[in-house]
Design goal:
- By secondary structure, this protein is α+β, with helices and mostly antiparallel strands.
- It has 2 domains: 4-174, 2-Layer Sandwich (CbiD-like); 196-245, no CATH class.
- The protein has helices at residues 4-7, 19-36, 127-144, 159-163, 168-171, 199-206, and strands spanning 16-17, 43-44, 54-55, 59-63, 66-72, 86-93, 100-104, 110-111, 150-156, 173-174, 185-186.
- The strands form 4 sheets. A 5-stranded mixed β-sheet has the order 4-5-6-9-7, with helices on one face. Strands 1-11 form a two-stranded antiparallel ribbon. The protein has a two-stranded antiparallel sheet with strand order 2-3.
- A hairpin with a 2-residue loop joins strand 4 and strand 5.
- Helix 2 runs parallel beside helix 3.
- The longest helix is centred in the first third of the chain and has 18 residues, at 19-36.
- The protein starts with a helix and ends in a 39-residue tail after the last helix.
- Mean pLDDT is 81; it is low at 1-6, 190-199, 202-214 and 218-245.
């Protein structure tokens, strides 16, 4: 992999977009096309903190009762192992009242162990991306008169191969990658993004002990550390910690 961090050393580091943000843009574009026939390109989404990024579609297609759109993930200058992956979203229309359902397509894992924000047996699509996709579907439904009842199937090209470079095998996420993101934005601050211990690994292993969390949520917690996940004992901000995974 090209060391994009060195390349960017002479200028401010560039932020990128999470897998969840890319999936949200794909879901919005696909549902828009399902209702009116046209794929918006680029697809604009609303992030939880009010930002409105736009995503160019890499590819799109439609079939009987479904539409499909793909986004190339841009992680900015963060050394994210999933930078450049193709995130695909297929949206199927469901009967009224079915709600929004999520399905793990090729390259997206399934949760098998307790301790994560998603229950075992569910697709490894985290709560914030789910919330963003539901909001995007509702926005399009309101605009075009749809019911908003859809199945969203997310796939990630070569997900199984990339998953081996992440903490997913330790976390019990079967086979493939997770759809992540707490803000929709990737902020370049990791030494080796995706290397354990990740915040989720710390959460699942710390149990009742104090938790060190390097992700965006950690900035709101009492204990936090820089996202230099390559260190066995991360640096914490002010408070003493009882355990560092």
């Amino acid at each position: 992999m090209i060391d994009r961090t060195k390349k960017a050393a002479s200028r401010p580091l560039r932020c990128g977009w999470t897998t969840g943000a890319c999936a949200t843009a794909g879901a919005k574009a696909a549902y828009h096309a399902l209702l009116c026939g046209d794929f918006p390109d680029p697809a604009e989404i609303l992030l939880l903190r009010g930002e409105k990024p736009s995503f160019a579609l890499a590819r799109h297609e439609r079939g009987a009762g479904w539409c499909y759109a793909t986004i190339v993930k841009d992680a900015g200058d963060d050394p994210d192992v999933t930078h450049g992956v193709l995130v695909g979203v297929r949206v199927h229309e469901l009967s009224p009242g079915a709600g929004v359902c999520f399905v793990a397509g090729e390259g997206v894992g399934t949760v098998t162990l307790p301790g994560l924000p998603i229950e075992p047996g569910e697709p490894a699509i985290n709560p914030v991306p789910r919330k963003m996709m539901k909001a995007a579907i509702a926005e399009v439904a309101d605009l075009l008169g749809g019911s908003g009842d859809v199945e969203i199937e997310i796939s990630i090209a070569d997900g199984a191969r990339f998953a081996q470079k992440t903490a997913n095998p330790r976390l019990g996420i079967l086979g493939d990658l997770s759809v992540l993101g707490t803000t929709g934005i990737v902020r370049p601050s990791s030494v080796r993004s995706g290397s354990p211990p990740s915040s989720a690994a710390l959460m699942s292993r710390a149990q009742a002990d104090s938790i060190i969390s390097p992700d965006a949520r950690g900035r709101r917690r009492k204990l936090r550390c820089a996202r230099f996940t390559g260190f066995r004992k991360p640096r914490c901000s002010t408070w003493a910690i009882s355990r560092a995974a």
